[in-house]
Task: inverse folding
């Protein structure tokens, strides 16, 4: 059957199982939008293309499916880029569709033309400019395949408007075959044996788990491994939820704002088992002082992540879930596994001596707010965050116990991510409570999405930890720039009135005793709610490793 | 240390940009890069010469190259036996005074004259990079007006 390019696109999306799209129309995608009008794909109109990309990303993180966003050529496409880069840094499966000027105008500086494949080359896993309608179906098929397999990531497909209009026989490519792309999914048996040898001999093992555990769905296997070898587990920011913080073997998060005991464990371990983590600088601190006594096993699906920052003793390339399964199988054969009792005793001692803490007096403490959100939602909410102090407080004080419940821009550190990501998460998981833990700075970066929430009846809750500052930058200025608060003090709108003007609900909270009732009330309301918590303005995130220091040289929390 | 890396890639637009973008984004230096079609017209071969004193940097370069979707295979030829050639074209002064000296040099390096016009000659040398370099050193004495080098191409034995 003959179909237009736009029809072919929609047909391909349906066959890829796309139920939801986030986006914004414009001149160069009109034929596609005309087709969407009749399609049963649920389309969410955001109020900014950046938010469409973040919403698709939040949808992908919460559901594990590929997120899809669409924008027009030129400014529509360039507005997507922050969202694409965010997804790229955190390995999130995303397909971004952009309109492009007519093929014969490409390169002519036409109206609303941007070389978006050129622009996004370094921030996509792959991208395509469709130059021939014959290739469209294959490209869409490949785009979804690339986005969702191997190390996932965003793929952009740029479709000129004349290709959308042309018609052509629709042929669905049953198979995808990209000769340069053959990800490795199972660990090399020899490497598994080597790893197991190190594991059974280790007296002070530590599992360091990252976002790869969430992506591959390896949380069960991770739990089994930790329990089997009695190794403590620390996760990265991206790994939160991959191993329950409530588990006795959990050390919470490591790194710059990690727990003291997690960082001490890294510095004293004789073996680190890194699973789907990439030794980011926010995790390692000063590289040459990182894990001085440890041999390192590194499990990752991306070979280029291995030995990039630290030297690895046993690299294993493949999918985390498969490899943990292989290791567990191999461990069954081994009768003798080293006793880690003394190590765990030391760790429990550190945990007792250096717990996460804050002084709960004076004005509302942000940590208290996060704790109350945790308690009231019984730890079952999907939490999104913005970036900065709000993100770290959420990471430290919400006790994550399930995968895909902590959605945060880890790699790129994108302010303005949390609110649209919450929208995407809520659309993907309508039965879950979705809470964006925000700052007063970050929330204003995509605050226009209040309209998206209200129009589409997307019920998300936003806790604004309002300190009147760009808090994390202010904290650095306080600690390292002699309290010279250059441009970090904010003049803010009345968030309650602002929410109300969009048709959402606003609640202002200035006293500690109002914190719990306000959260409870917000959860009762079948609408998007902004809770504006006026918190202690100069509260800091502790503990903290100053940039460039060894990770056991922490400020705060050691006393 | 210089490494000669042979990369098979899809022969389609944007691939060169991806490769060069990878090098610039990650701060790797390219000494030379030569591209051409292979026996299979859908595939191009690139010979990339990089200066990587650190083994880890080299490992990253190779892994990052392999990670590109359009890359079919990557081989570090430096670890194998391979032959390599580079072509250079040089425009020099070619006069009655230096003629015999130039001819002598051409014989020594198995180089030739491609074009001759009045007092100017375009010379061609095709040899291993070190040899080309040596030749260019010598040829400078004749007043080097213009120089063009292809960069190394290489093939495993």
Result:
């Amino acid at each position: 059957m003959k179909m237009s390019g736009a029809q072919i696109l929609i047909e391909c999306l349906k066959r890829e199982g796309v139920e939801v799209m986030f986006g914004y129309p414009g001149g160069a995608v009109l034929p596609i939008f005309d087709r969407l009008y009749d399609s049963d794909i649920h389309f969410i109109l955001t109020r900014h293309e950046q938010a469409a990309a973040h919403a698709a990303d939040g949808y992908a993180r919460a559901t594990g499916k590929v997120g899809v966003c669409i924008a027009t050529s030129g400014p529509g496409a360039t507005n997507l880029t922050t969202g694409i880069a965010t997804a790229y840094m955190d390995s999130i499966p995303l397909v971004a569709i952009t309109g492009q000027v007519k093929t014969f105008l490409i390169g002519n500086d036409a109206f609303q033309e941007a070389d978006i494949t050129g622009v996004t080359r370094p921030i996509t896993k792959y991208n395509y400019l469709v130059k021939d309608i014959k290739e469209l179906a294959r490209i869409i098929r490949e785009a979804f395949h690339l986005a969702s397999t191997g190390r996932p990531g965003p793929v952009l497909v740029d479709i000129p408007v004349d290709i959308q209009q042309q018609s052509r026989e629709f042929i669905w490519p049953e198979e995808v075959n990209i000769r340069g792309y053959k990800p490795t999914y199972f660990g090399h048996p020899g490497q598994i044996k080597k790893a197991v040898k190190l594991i059974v001999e280790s007296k002070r093992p530590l599992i360091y788990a990252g976002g790869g555990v969430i992506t591959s769905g390896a949380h069960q296997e991770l739990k089994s491994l930790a329990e089997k070898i009695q190794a403590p587990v620390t996760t990265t920011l991206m790994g939160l939820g991959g191993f329950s913080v409530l588990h006795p073997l959990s050390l919470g998060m490591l790194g710059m704002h990690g727990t003291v005991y997690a960082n001490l464990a890294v510095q004293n371990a004789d073996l680190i088992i890194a699973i789907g983590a990439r030794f980011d600088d926010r995790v390692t601190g000063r590289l040459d002082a990182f894990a001085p006594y440890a041999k390192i096993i590194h499990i990752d699906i991306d070979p280029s992540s291995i030995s990039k920052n630290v030297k690895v003793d046993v690299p294993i390339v493949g999918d985390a879930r498969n490899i943990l399964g292989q290791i567990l199988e191999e461990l069954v054969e081994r009768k003798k596994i080293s006793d880690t009792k003394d190590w765990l005793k030391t760790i429990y001692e550190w945990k007792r001596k250096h717990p996460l803490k804050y002084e709960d007096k004076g004005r509302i403490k942000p940590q208290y707010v996060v704790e109350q959100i945790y308690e009231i939602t019984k730890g079952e909410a999907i939490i999104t965050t913005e970036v900065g102090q709000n993100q770290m407080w959420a990471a430290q004080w919400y006790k994550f116990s399930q995968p895909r419940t902590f959605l945060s821009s880890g790699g790129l550190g994108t302010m303005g991510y949390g609110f649209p990501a919450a929208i995407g998460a809520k659309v993907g998981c309508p039965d879950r409570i979705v809470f964006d833990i925000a700052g007063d700075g970050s929330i204003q970066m995509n605050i226009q999405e209040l309209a998206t929430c209200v129009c589409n009846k997307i019920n998300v809750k936003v806790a604004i930890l309002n300190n009147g500052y760009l808090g994390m930058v202010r904290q650095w200025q306080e600690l390292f720039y002699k309290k010279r608060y250059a441009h970090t003090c904010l003049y803010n709108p009345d968030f309650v009135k602002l929410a109300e003007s969009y048709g959402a609900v606003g609640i202002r909270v200035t006293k500690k005793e109002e914190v719990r009732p306000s959260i409870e009330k917000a959860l009762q309301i079948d609408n998007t709610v902004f809770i504006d918590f006026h918190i202690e303005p100069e509260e800091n995130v502790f503990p903290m490793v100053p940039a460039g220091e060894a990770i056991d040289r922490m400020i705060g929390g050691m006393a | 240390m210089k490494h000669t890396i042979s990369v098979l890639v899809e022969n389609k637009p944007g691939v060169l940009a991806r490769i060069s973008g990878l090098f610039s984004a990650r701060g790797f230096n390219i000494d030379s890069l030569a591209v051409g079609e292979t026996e299979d017209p859908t595939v191009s071969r690139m010979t990339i010469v990089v200066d990587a004193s650190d083994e880890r940097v080299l490992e990253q370069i190779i892994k990052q190259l392999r990670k590109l979707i359009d890359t079919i295979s990557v081989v570090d030829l430096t670890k194998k036996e391979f032959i390599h050639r580079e072509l250079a074209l040089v425009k020099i002064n070619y006069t009655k005074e230096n003629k015999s000296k130039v001819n002598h040099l051409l014989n020594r390096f198995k180089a030739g004259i491609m074009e001759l016009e009045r007092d100017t000659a375009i010379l061609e040398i095709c040899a291993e990079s070190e040899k080309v370099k040596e030749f260019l050193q010598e040829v400078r004495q004749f007043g080097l007006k213009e120089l063009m080098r292809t960069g190394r191409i290489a093939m495993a034995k």
About this structure: Chain B is about 30% helix and 45% strand. Chain B has two domains: 2-79, 83-156.
